[in-house]
Amino acid sequence: MRYVLGVDLGTSSTKTAMFDECGRLIADASYDYELLQPRNGWAEQRPSDWWDAAVSTISATIKKSGVSADDIVGVGFSGQMHWLVMVDQDGNVIRPAILWCDGRTGEECKEIEEAVGKKRLIEICGNPALTGFTAGKILWVKKNEPENYARCKKMMLPKDYVRYMLTGEFAIDAGDASGTNLLDITTRDWSDEILSALKIDRGLLPNVYNSCDVVGKITPKAAELTGLKVGTAVVCGCGDNASAAVGSGVVTEGLAFTTLGTSGVVYASSKEPLVDPMGRIHTFCSAVPGEYALMSCTLAAGLSLKWFKNTFCDEEAAEAAKKGIDVYAYLDSIAANVPVGANKLIYLPYIMGERSPLLDEKARGVFFGLSGIHTKADLLRAVLEGVVYSQRQCFDIFAELGVHPEQMIALGGGGTSKLWRQMLADNYRCNISTVVNKEGPALGAALMAAVGAGIYSSLPEACSAVVKFKDIQEPVSENIDEYTEIFNIYKSLYPALKDSFLKLSYIQY
């Protein structure tokens, strides 16, 4: 039997999982690390934390499995998108990496659109200039930390850094590269037109590969640290959402998923590079060679619930611990007793600014309609519903572009919530299912390794053999109109508050 590893570098933790060639989970391990927020709206992490996490989880997974390193034929990666990791000529990290939800680059995004042209930028890379994307971060460092920029030899994303540490090779996949604002999505290579306009040296960027391409092999030093065999094949991998698509079987047209993780994502496969001319949702190269994906990203889905739990729910956490149940399951049970519409209370989940579909890093969270009748349970229900409304607003744009998924899969920590899945079904007005295997991005990363190692000939073949579906939830007809009435008010709130968000951002203290 042959085995593969999938390493998933998330925002709050890294998880490594081992699967056999039939996709059965053999062993896994995880490692948490902290998010740094040095200023309001900023978000960073230390790449050394990812490397420590990768070494720890790979070695722990191999030890737990009892599998010989000789039988592990490949390693694949899933990772956070849009980051900026910078290393010097010796491969040493120059500064903390800037996170996908960091909102500091508003001015740089304006400079990008002025230099390239807003319309032309979307034509080339499929997306407008966004504060979360990498290009703005590069210009920010160039402007604000010129000494760091001058030291930089290579720029990459988190999984690419860890893979470099394992193999000594620099590389990036077309999907992650298309999330930088620097890739021509039709040629699947860096755009010389954009690089020239922004005065970014092409040599600072890694070469672009397909996700299943073998781009390096485990070095002796990495083997000693992790327990892997020297020379084990390492594939390029892809971003976390593209990897989640592979792990949930969303590699052909007609399939889509919604992730309720730290961020909220709607993702659908497409054979053509369909582009929203307004840039409200993203178009990326997919993990399947020559194909594409439409994706939205709201910045604080599960993060909104986590913030609410950490800020207001100490009593509920203690009670859940006393009962021996998961705190989020306990919060679900509380929210389920509140009627649809949260007693006329609406939550805007913009606590980290917002990307899809608003493109406004200055937006901030709001409870609207708050009155003396409302309880903590109402606020909790409103948070859950507000996150769903943000996904629905994105889902409607997919429909505008002619994308009508036949099957929607719920993923992420929030996807395990029956209540949240029912909210999605009622708002999308379609059936929602889950996948049998819960390893999502880690499984996707492992399947890419399996293709790279020759176990399967393609990702669709691998997914057909491994991914299975369950837990179909249908819309509740009487809920649909009630949600729609509240949703229409939800959509009207951001335009009414946009100028106030901007004014609030100007206040210095």
Alpha carbon gap, first and last residue: 61 Å
Major pleated sheet? 7 strands, mixed
CATH superfamily of the domain at 3-236: ATPase, nucleotide binding domain
The proportion of residues in beta strands is 15-25%
Describe it for me?
- The chain starts with a strand and ends with a helix.
- It has a domain at 3-236: ATPase, nucleotide binding domain (Nucleotidyltransferase, domain 5, 2-Layer Sandwich).
- The mean pLDDT is 95.
- The chain is globular and about 65 Å long.
- The strands form seven sheets. Strands 1, 2, 3, 5, 13, 14 and 15 form a seven-stranded mixed sheet that branches. Strands 18-19-17-16-22-23-24 form a seven-stranded mixed sheet, sandwiched between helices.
- Helix 2 (106-116) crosses helix 4 (134-144), helix 10 packs across helix 17 (440-452) and helix 14 (376-400) packs across helix 16 (418-428).
- The longest helix is centred in the last third of the chain and has 30 residues, at 477-506.
- It is built from 19 helices and 24 strands.
- With 509 residues, the protein is α/β, with parallel strands linked by helices.
